[in-house]
């Protein structure tokens, strides 16, 4: 499953999700991100339903690479957990940044590339893998 397909399993994808942590196992070629994701119903009149959040894990298998851009020093740093915009910034035919494009061009056909903007850092997380899945973390 691609990252876009995995994100589609959540009502709002990973839009405005808070990054709680991540770990990478380069030997096993896996990565695991933990997010607090917005899973509420935007159309609900009940604020608790509309603003519901739940912790989720994004699991990547067949990891090809993971690049985390440095925070923009001119932007300032925010306290708390960094918020992402959701993945899909370069899907649909958009071109990745030059420093990543050459690597993306050489990915195996079984792999996907995706990235997300990290609001609090004014920078991006870029990744490529062969499979993605999202699991809800039971409360």
Q: Would you write up a description of this structure?
A:
It is a single chain. The protein is mainly beta and 139 residues long. It has one domain (3-136). Helix content is 12%, strand content 39%. The chain is built from three helices and eight strands, in the order H-E-E-H-E-E-E-H-E-E-E. It has helices spanning 3-7, 47-50, 98-105; strands spanning 18-25, 30-38, 53-61, 65-68, 84-87, 112-118, 123-129, 131-136. The strands form two sheets. The chain has a four-stranded antiparallel beta sheet with strand order 1-2-3-8. Strands 4-7-6-5 form a four-stranded antiparallel beta sheet. Strand 6 (112-118) and strand 7 (123-129) form a beta hairpin. The two termini are 25 Å apart. The mean pLDDT is 90.
Instruction: Please tell me the overall pLDDT.
Output: 90
Low-pLDDT segments, ≥5 res? none
Q: DSSP helix count?
A: 3
**How many structurally independent domains?**
1
Derived structural class = mainly beta
Number of DSSP E strands: 8
Biggest beta sheet summary: 4 strands, antiparallel
Widest β-sheet, arrangement of strands: 1-2-3-8
What share of the residues lie within helices?
10-25%
Portion in beta strands: 35-45%
Radius of gyration: 15 Å
SSE ordering: HEEHEEEHEEE
Principal-axes geometry comes out as globular
Distance between the termini: 25 Å
